Amino acid sequence: MPPDAERRLAAILSADVAGYSRLMAEDEAATVSTLTAYRDEFARLVVQHAGRVVDNPGDNVLCEFAAATHAVACALEIQRTLAARNAALAPERRMLFRIGIHLGELLAQGPRIYGDGVNIAARLEGLAEPGSVYVSRAVREQIGTKLAVAFDDLGERAVKNIAQPVRVYRARSVAEKPSAAPAAPRLRLAWLAAGTVAAAVVLEASWLALREDEVATRSAPARAGTTPPAKSVAVLPFAALSAGANDGYFADGLTEEIINALTTLPDLLVTARTSAFYFKGEEVPIPEIAAKLGVSHVVEGSVRRSGDRVRITAQLARAADGFNLWAETYDRSLGDEFAVQTQIAENVAAALGVLLDEQKRAAMADAGVRDVEAFIAYQRGVELFNRAHNEGPMLPLLARANVEFAAAIARKPDFAHAYFQHADYYAHFLIDEAPGQGPGFVSPTGLGVDEAARRLAEDLDAAFRYERDAGQRLVIQAVRTTVSSDWRNLEDQIVRAYAGWNDCRHGLWIDQTAIVFGHGDAALAHDLERLRCDPLGGNWTRLAMTAVWLGRPLAGLEYADRIEALRGQDRDVMHARILAYLALGRHGEAEALFAAGNFGAADVTEAMSLLALQVPAAAGRAAAWEGLRPSLTREPGRLLVGAAVFGDRATANRAAAEIDAMTVGPEILLRFSDRCGCGAPFDLDATPNFARLLREGNLPWSPPAPIRFPLKSW
Question: What's the predicted TM-score (pTM) here?
Answer without folding.
Answer: 0.63
